[in-house]
Write a structure and sequence with these properties.
The complex is a heterodimer. By secondary structure, chain A is α/β, with parallel strands linked by helices. Chain A has 21 helices and 28 strands. Chain A folds into 3 domains: 163 residues, Rossmann fold (3-Layer(aba) Sandwich), CATH 3.40.50; 181 residues, Luciferase, Domain 3 (Luciferase, domain 3); 167 residues, 2-Layer Sandwich (GMP Synthetase, Chain A, domain 3), CATH 3.30.300.30. Helices cover 39% and strands 21% of the residues of chain A. Chain A has a 5-stranded parallel sheet with strand order 4-3-5-6-7, with helices on both faces. In chain A, strands 12-13-14-15-16 form a 5-stranded mixed sheet, sandwiched between helices. In chain A, strands 24-25-26-28-27 form a 5-stranded mixed sheet, with helices on both faces. In chain A, helix 1 packs across helix 2, helix 2 crosses helix 3 and helix 2 crosses helix 6. The N terminus of chain A is likely disordered. Chain B has 2 domains: 161 residues, Rossmann fold; 84 residues, P-loop containing nucleotide triphosphate hydrolases (Rossmann fold). In chain B, the strands form 2 sheets. In chain B, strands 6-7-8-3-9-10 form a 6-stranded mixed sheet, with helices on both faces. A 4-stranded antiparallel sheet of chain B has the order 2-1-4-5, with helices on one face. In chain B, strand 9 and strand 10 form a beta hairpin. The mean pLDDT of chain B is 87. Classes of the chains: A alpha/beta, B alpha/beta.
C-alpha cells in the first residue's frame, strides 16, 4: 500500500526518518544481504524497518534512553548495522569500535564514552568485554549476535540478540505508540554517531556528527555520482571507520541502495566476485593487496599468458586512461585496446570482482601513481577523494573524466577550502563535526573561530583548481641542506613494489634520507621458493643477502624516479635496512587503519636509526612483541645495512 | 557409553596391549596418553574396528562385541580422524566433507549418476548440514580450495569437519594437535570444546601436549607398554606417582 505522506520529501533529515521513508516507498526492494551458510540471505527495507523497530524497543525495555551511547563491536553484520539505526531511533548515539582492537584498547573508548550498553558480534568480543569488567564495572548490558560458544556464560550482563528482539516485540505490543513517539523526538541537530579517530597522534578522540551534517554530506556524494536504489556495495571495511559508515550506512540510507555483508573477513574477496558491486570504496592498501595478488599469480602463469598480460598491460598503460577520459587516441591503439579488453582487461576485472563497477573511490592515504594508473588503465573508474573523519569525508572528489593522479579533485558542493599561510588546508563543509566528545579543548584547537576545520594536511591548489595534498603538514620536513623532504611520498613509491609491504623514511633535519623496509612475506616467500631458496620464516628471509639485493633493486629504481624531479632529487635514499619483524598494530607501530606511526617507530628503533646515520653496516637489536593472545616475547636479530647508489638530478637510470 | 574390558592385542610376538579396561561416559572428553609405543593408537583402532583384539570385549551403547568391522562402527556412530591426515588431497574441502555424509545417502547409484529423484533432495539437505559444519569450524574461505593446497593446521580442521559430517555419537581424535603452533592449538582446543558442548558429542582423544590434555579433558587414561597405569581426572593423574615416573616427569 503506497500512501502519500507529508514526510516523504527530499528534506528528511534524520537517519530513522530516512529508513522509514525507504520502508514506505520501496519496502520490497532489497536493503541488505548477508552470506550465511554459503547462501546469500536478503532483507527488504520493510523487513529492516521492522527489525530496527523491534531492536529499538528491546533496548528501550532494558532502559536505554535518549543521550546514552551504545557500543557496537564486530565484523560487518546486518544486525550490527541495524543497531546503529536502533540507537538513533531512541535518540541515543551508536559508537562503533574496531573489532580487532585488544581489550585494553577498547577500555579507553568504553570509559571515555561512558558505555553501559553494547551490541557485539560473537564470543570473541564478549570475552574482551568481560575481561574488562573488573576495570570497567559500568557496563550493564552486552547483547551478542552469534551465540556460539556462549551457552555456559552465566554473567548477568549477557543476553542473546534474538532474546532482545523478542523482548522488543513484546514491549512494542504493550506500548504501540512508543516507537513513533521516540523517532519523532529526534532533532536533526542531535548527535547521530560518534566515531573515534584512529589516534595517529595521542589518545583517540570521539568525533560527534549530527544527523543533519552527516546526511548533508551523504546527499552531496549521492548527487555527485548519481547513486540510486539499484546500486550494490560490499561492506567489508571496519564499521568503526568513517569510510564504512559513510558508504555502507549513510549513503545507503540516502540513496536506498543495497549493502552486502561478506560471510567472513577472509572470504571478502570471493564474495566481492559473487556480488559484483557497482560502487566500491577502499583505502589504497586494499587496491594494493589486490594488485599484488594478481601480480603473484601472473608470475606463476604460463609463458603465453604472461606474455599476453604484459603486452596488453603496456597497451593499457599507453592509452587506457586516455580512452576512459574521452581524450583523442590513435585508431591503432584504440583497436589494440579493444582486443586487450577482450583478452585481458575484462577477465582481469572479473577476477578482481570489478566487472560491474561504475565508480570506485580510494582515499584515506596517498595512492601510489602506478597503482592508480593500473586500475584506470584497465577500465575501472577509480577516483580519489579527500576528507577526514571530522568532515564526514566530504571535502574533495574527482569528477568523472577529470581524474588526475596527483590531485584529490575539486571542492564538493557547499564546501569552502582555504590554504593557510603555513600551507595547511582548512575546510568549511556541511559535514562538519559537531564536537570532539568531552574535549572542548581539542574542538577549539581544530576548528577556527570563523568555522573552518584545520585538517593538518599540507596542500595547494594547482592551476586548474584541483587540490593537491603533499603530506601531513607536521610530517613534511626539510633535509639539513634545506631541500624538501616528504617521507610519505617516498614511502609510497617504495610500497608499489610487491616485495615491499611497508616502508618508513627518515631524513628531517638530517643530511640524507634513510629507510626501514618491511618485506611482503607472501611475495618474497614466493620469489624465494621459485629460486629454490629454503628459509625458515620471516626473520630468516629478512637476513638473506639475496633478499637485500632484491630490495636494493627496488630502492635504486625509486631513486631513479626521484632523480627525475629536481625538487626531490636530494631525497634519494642513501642507506636502508630490512626490519626483522613486520610493523604491527598490536605493537602500536601502525594505527588500526594501518598507517605508520612514524614517531613511535623512530623512538622504538632509535638504535637502528643511529646505525643508519653513523655508517655502521650491522646493528644488533632486541624488540619486544605482543602476540595475539596477549603474551609478550622478544625477537632478536642482527640487521645488516646497505648503501644505495644515488643519481645526479636529471640523470637517467642506466 | 563405551566400555572396553580386559583387552589384549598382539602382533606376532609383540604385545601391544594387555589387559586394558576403561570406560567412556556419555558427553565427556576422555584422553588417552602415554609415551610413544604405549598402544594408544592401537586402542583407538580397536574401538573403531580396524584391529581385532585377541582377548576382551567392547560394549558400545549396551551392545557387546568382540569383533567389529570399521564400516559397522561408522554406521553405529563412531567417527575418527587420523594421526597422519587421511583426506582426499585432490578434492575440495567441500567435497571432502561431503564424503563424511556418505553413510547417510540412500539414493541409488543411477539416481546419483543422473542427479535426479531422491538424490537431488538428499544432496541439498546434506549440503545444508555440511555448510553448518563449515560455519562451525570457520573454514568458509577455503570451501572451494583443494585440500592438498592447504596448510597443515587447516587440513587437520578439515579432517575434523569430515568426521563431524557423519554426526557421530563418539568421536575419536588421534593427535588432533600434533605439529601445530600455539595459536592453531588454541583454535583446535576451542573447536573440540565447542563440538562437545554444542553437539553433545562424546570425544576420545590422544594427545601429547599435557597442557592441552589437562585443560580440556574430563578424564584421562594413561598407558605404558600396553598396560594401563593410571585412570582419573587431570588432578588425580597429576598426583599419580607411577604416571609421573613413566611419562610426565618431575620439574627440576
Amino acid at each position: 500500500m503506497i500512501q502519500s505522506d507529508p514526510r516523504d520529501d527530499g528534506n528528511v533529515d534524520t537517519f530513522p526518518m530516512l529508513l522509514l521513508q525507504h520502508a514506505r516507498k520501496q519496502g520490497n526492494r532489497t536493503a541488505i544481504r548477508e552470506k550465511d551458510l554459503g547462501i546469500w540471505q536478503s532483507w527488504t527495507w520493510a523487513q529492516v524497518a521492522d527489525e530496527v523497530r523491534a531492536l529499538a524497543c528491546g533496548l528501550a525495555a532494558h532502559g536505554f534512553r535518549r543521550g546514552m551511547n551504545l557500543a557496537i563491536i564486530g565484523d560487518n553484520r546486518p544486525r550490527l548495522y541495524w543497531s546503529f539505526a536502533a540507537a538513533q531511533c531512541l535518540g541515543g548515539v551508536p559508537v562503533p569500535m574496531y573489532q580487532d582492537a585488544v581489550a585494553q584498547e577498547l577500555l579507553f573508548v568504553l570509559d571515555n564514552a561512558e558505555i553501559e550498553y553494547a551490541i557485539v558480534e560473537d564470543q570473541e568480543q564478549v570475552d574482551k568485554l568481560l575481561e574488562l569488567l573488573p576495570q570497567y564495572p559500568n557496563l550493564k548490558h552486552v547483547f551478542y549476535d552469534d551465540a556460539r560458544g556462549l551457552r555456559h556464560y552465566a554473567q548477568p550482563q549477557l543476553m542473546a540478540y534474538d532474546r532482545l528482539r523478542e523482548i522488543g516485540q513484546e514491549y512494542d505490543r504493550q506500548n504501540p505508540v512508543f516507537f513513533e513517539g521516540s523517532v519523532g523526538q529526534i532533532s536533526p541537530q542531535d548527535t547521530c554517531v560518534m566515531l573515534y579517530t584512529s589516534g595517529t597522534t595521542g589518545k583517540p578522540k570521539g568525533v560527534c556528527h549530527t544527523h543533519a551534517g552527516f546526511i548533508a554530506a551523504a546527499r552531496g556524494d549521492v548527487e555527485f555520482d548519481g547513486f540510486n536504489a539499484s546500486d550494490e556495495v560490499l561492506s567489508y571495511l571496519p564499521m568503526a571507520w568513517v569510510g564504512d559508515h559513510l558508504f555502507s550506512y549513510a549513503q545507503a540510507m540516502v540513496a536506498g541502495f543495497t549493502v552486502n555483508c561478506p560471510e567472513s573477513s577472509e572470504t571478502a574477496m570471493t564474495d566481492l566476485r559473487e556480488i559484483g558491486p557497482t560502487y566500491y570504496f577502499a583505502p589504497p592498501r586494499i587496491f594494493e593487496n589486490l594488485l599484488t595478488a594478481v601480480m603473484i599469480r601472473m608470475d606463476d602463469a604460463g609463458f603465453l599468458k604472461r606474455g599476453l598480460f604484459h603486452y596488453f598491460m603496456d597497451v593499457a598503460r599507453r592509452c587506457g586512461a586516455q580512452i576512459m577520459d574521452g581524450q583523442p587516441v590513435r585508431h591503432v591503439e584504440r583497436l589494440l585496446y579493444a582486443l586487450g579488453g577482450f583478452l585481458v582487461y575484462a577477465p582481469l576485472r572479473n577476477i578482481l570482482g570489478m566487472s560491474r563497477i561504475r565508480v570506485a573511490y580510494t582515499g584515506g592515504a596517498a595512492i601510489g601513481p602506478d597503482l592508480y594508473r593500473f586500475y584506470r588503465s584497465i577500465g575501472i573508474n577509480l577516483k580519489q577523494l579527500y576528507g577526514q573523519t571530522e568532515t564526514s569525508v566530504y571535502v574533495c572528489k574527482q569528477p568523472n573524466g577529470r581524474a588526475k593522479l596527483d590531485s584529490v579533485g575539486r571542492p564538493m558542493k557547499g564546501v569552502d577550502i582555504r590554504i593557510a599561510g603555513s600551507g595547511e588546508v582548512q575546510v568549511k563543509t556541511p559535514g562538519m563535526l559537531k564536537e570532539y566528545y568531552k574535549r572542548p579543548d581539542a574542538t577549539a584547537e581544530s576548528i577556527s573561530a570563523d568555522g573552518y576545520f584545520l585538517t593538518g594536511d599540507a596542500g595547494f591548489f594547482d592551476s586548474e583548481g584541483d587540490l593537491k595534498i603533499i603530506d601531513r603538514a607536521s610530517d613534511v620536513g626539510k633535509l639539513a641542506d634545506g631541500a624538501l623532504f616528504a617521507p610519505q611520498f617516498i614511502e609510497n613509491k617504495l610500497k608499489f613494489y610487491s616485495y615491499v609491504k611497508e616502508a618508513v623514511c627518515f631524513g628531517n633535519g638530517r643530511n640524507m634520507v634513510c629507510a626501514f623496509v618491511n618485506i611482503d612475506l607472501q611475495a618474497v616467500g614466493n620469489w624465494a621458493e621459485k629460486r629454490n631458496m629454503p628459509y625458515s620464516g620471516y626473520l630468516d628471509l629478512t637476513s638473506r643477502p639475496a633478499v637485500y639485493d632484491l630490495i636494493l633493486n627496488c630502492v635504486e629504481q625509486v631513486n631513479a624516479d626521484l632523480a627525475r624531479e629536481a625538487a626531490l632529487a636530494s631525497s634519494q635514499i642513501r642507506r636502508f635496512l630490512i626490519l626483522h619483524k613486520e610493523l604491527d598494530a598490536d605493537d602500536d607501530e601502525l594505527t588500526r587503519t594501518r598507517k605508520v606511526r612514524r614517531n613511535f617507530v623512530a623512538e622504538k628503533y632509535a638504535p637502528l636509526i643511529e646505525a643508519l646515520y653513523s655508517g655502521q653496516d650491522r646493528c644488533h637489536i632486541a624488540t619486544e612483541v605482543k602476540f595475539e593472545d596477549g603474551r609478550r616475547g622478544t625477537i632478536e636479530a642482527d640487521i645488516s645495512i646497505r648503501d644505495v647508489k644515488t643519481l645526479v638530478s636529471g640523470q637517467q637510470a642506466a | 557409553m563405551l566400555s572396553v574390558q580386559n583387552i589384549a592385542l598382539s602382533f606376532g610376538g609383540v604385545r601391544a596391549l594387555s589387559d586394558v579396561s576403561f570406560d567412556v561416559r556419555e558427553g565427556e572428553i576422555r584422553a588417552i596418553i602415554g609415551p610413544n609405543g604405549a598402544g594408544k593408537s592401537s586402542m583407538l583402532n580397536i574401538i573403531n574396528g580396524v584391529y581385532h583384539p585377541q582377548q576382551g570385549q567392547i560394549s558400545f551403547r549396551g551392545v557387546v562385541r568382540t569383533r567389529m568391522e570399521p564400516h559397522r562402527a561408522a554406521a553405529q556412530g563412531i567417527a575418527r580422524t587420523f594421526q597422519n591426515i587421511a583426506l582426499f588431497k585432490g578434492m575440495t574441502v567441500l567435497d571432502n566433507i561431503m564424503t563424511g555424509r556418505n553413510l547417510k545417502m540412500h539414493a541409488s547409484l543411477l539416481e546419483q549418476a543422473l542427479y535426479v529423484g531422491r538424490n537431488q533432495r538428499e544432496e541439498i539437505a546434506h549440503r545444508a548440514k555440511v555448510e553448518e559444519i563449515i560455519d562451525f569450524l570457520q573454514i568458509e574461505h577455503i570451501r572451494k580450495t583443494p585440500v592438498g593446497r592447504l596448510p597443515y593446521g587447516l587440513q587437520k580442521r578439515v579432517e575434523l569437519a569430515r568426521a563431524l559430517a557423519a554426526e557421530p555419537l563418539l568421536l575419536l581424535l588421534d593427535e588432533p594437535m600434533a605439529g601445530m603452533n600455539v595459536e592453531e592449538k588454541q583454535d583446535m582446543c576451542r573447536f573440540i570444546l565447542d563440538v562437545n558442548d554444542e553437539f553433545g558429542t562424546t570425544i576420545v582423544l590422544i594427545e601429547h601436549d599435557m597442557g592441552v590434555v589437562m585443560d580440556i579433558c574430563d578424564r584421562i587414561v594413561v598407558l605404558d607398554y600396553g598396560r594401563k597405569i593410571g585412570d582419573g581426572t587431570p588432578d588425580e593423574i597429576r598426583g599419580n606417582k607411577s604416571v609421573v615416573d613413566a611419562y610426565l616427569g618431575v620439574s627440576h
